[in-house]
Amino acid sequence: MTGSAADADGLRAYPTADGSFSLESERFGEPFHNSAGALNEARAKFSRPAELNRFCAADRLRILDVCVGLGYNTAVILENLPEPTPAVQWWGLELDRRPLDLALEQPTFRGLWRADVLERLEGIQANDGWSDPPNIGHQLWGDARTALARIPDQQRFDLILQDAFSPQRCPELWTEEFLAGLSARLAPGGRLLTYSRSAAVRASLQRAGLQLYSLLPAPGERVGWSSGTMAVQPGGSCTAEGPGWRPFSPMEKEHLFTRAAVPFRDPDGEASSSEILEKRVLEQQACGLEPTNAWQRRWRGDAALQSR
Ligand SMILES: C[S@@+](CC[C@H](N)C(=O)[O-])C[C@H]1O[C@@H](n2cnc3c(N)ncnc32)[C@H](O)[C@@H]1O
């Protein structure tokens, strides 16, 4: 596949390692998916640890997709719903319509999904969701910080799929305040899933009262010290180890006491990314926490250490 067919202003198409179509953003300076491939990543980090069989014969499954992009995460969840299928109440947050438009133009992307799943993606594109009671879908376009507040107060979620660009590129969607807002939307036992292993993100989720687990790598992904985070609202049952996750290692626990754990902050919900990053550097300089490179040195030799 060549990139040119799907190139749009600031978005460049590329095939990922598993052959699935993805994009790279010039504005954010980052690809939408990791080297394992878009489809592999969506399955390993979102649908597998969601343990969808828990919702077999349940009345409903409530999902919030943060940064819908090309729609992979929602699509893998819909593809893997258990039978008998629960009613799906779905909300999506996304700034830019073009990633989904570009994906739906690609025959290879369309060919990945069952007809009913493709119909849902087309519903997001054309109708901002769907209304097919008891299944409902609401796509909110715009900055996820303000869109989150437009979801009715009483709405809670069993699954939140947090797939923003990385904290250094898109810190506004990884702040203490935004993550607390997402955490507050989790139903008892609800799970927030993300590819991020950032100590700042994890520490914010922990302060929001969630229990943390480490995600396992997707097939084909380079094995490092962690491949993401599952954060669980107390009140349900979640085993220490499960399909796609394990407990934190001692190294990961210590990471939360280093400077890397200083949170991204955005108390008014409207700071620019550079303002958030600059303030965090100042807070890191003033904090008494261990420098992250001392932690790195201590654990050097452990699985391909890389701090983010
Ligand atoms: C890593 S991609 C998401 C990939 C997506 N989950 C998928 O499966 O294709 C990040 C997405 O965040 C969106 N985005 C960036 N800033 C945003 C913001 N402030 N609010 C909402 N979406 C944002 C980008 O347009 C992009 O689609």
TrEMBL record:
Residues 141-213 form the MnmC-like methyltransferase domain. GO terms for molecular function: oxidoreductase activity, acting on the CH-NH group of donors. This is MnmC-like methyltransferase domain-containing protein. It comes from Parasynechococcus marenigrum (strain WH8102).
